[in-house]
Write the structure tokens for this entry.
Amino acid sequence: QIEIPNAGINALRRTPRMGGQDRPTVKATIREGGRVFTNVALHLKGAAGSFRRVDDNPCFTLNFDKFAPGQKFYGLDKFSLNNSVQDPSLLSEKISRELFDAAGVPVPRAAHARVALNGRDLGLYVITEGFNKQFLKRYFKNAKGNLFDGGFCQEINGSLSVNSGDNPNDRSGLIRLINACREPDAARRMARLEQTLDVDRFLSFVAMDMMLCNWDGYAMNLNNWRVFHDLDSNKMVFMPHGLDQMFGVMRANAQYSIHQSMRGLVARAVLGTPEGRRRYLERVSQLSTNVYKVSEILQRVDAANAVIRPALAES
């Protein structure tokens, strides 16, 4: 249950439809069962497809310790509540994130919750874990590097904001990656990419995008992505975001080719080399055998569906 004073609601009504640093943040009270969390930082989230006004069924990002240091929600500092307007099943985020994780790609977790705003029942929402140090520490020993937000359809040389990092002005990892991608000689390019990009994880990242029909990801649409500068390896690590239009819905279909045209500079740079192409096809083969196990995925869908159906029926 989210409670926001009238002044906060009026501030949220001025939220711009597209993302940016100017989205107002207000203080909210969150009630869950018998627990009460005060001074929770809240702002509306979403881009072209998912953004809804506060008087509709909006998406929220909640930060529990921004105004109340040390406050956590079941151990979490930050998470988002997504309205799932582009995924009527409400399962795409959860199932897709589990598959990316199984493929070795860092990705925040997803779950579900019934949500009410000032007593108004908004129905069933998808919870997604925040992109912050708490999340990064599950995958990296050193979480001090910058985690860059791809924003809305931006390339790695765009004006990327920083979700987390001890030195937000440090763009050295991005600059090295951009320069490596622009190397004209394929052999030298791949060698330079190996020095600045976690190529192994990137191949899994792109392969899973293709296998899950993610038309709205980095590789094919420059959208819904993050990239982390792992300071220990001094390499950039890509990770997915916004996995609500997968499995052949919206602009893709279930007969999705693994040979899609690429918009992402890094994807073109890697797969544009003979070695990168060969390793990509090998990775697709490995993941289709070891991760994309259809019978197990269907069982997981049934199990998750059994959990959310009672809540949908009540909502």
Remarks:
- The chain has a mean pLDDT of 94.
- The radius of gyration is 20 Å.
- The chain is about 35% helix and 20% strand.
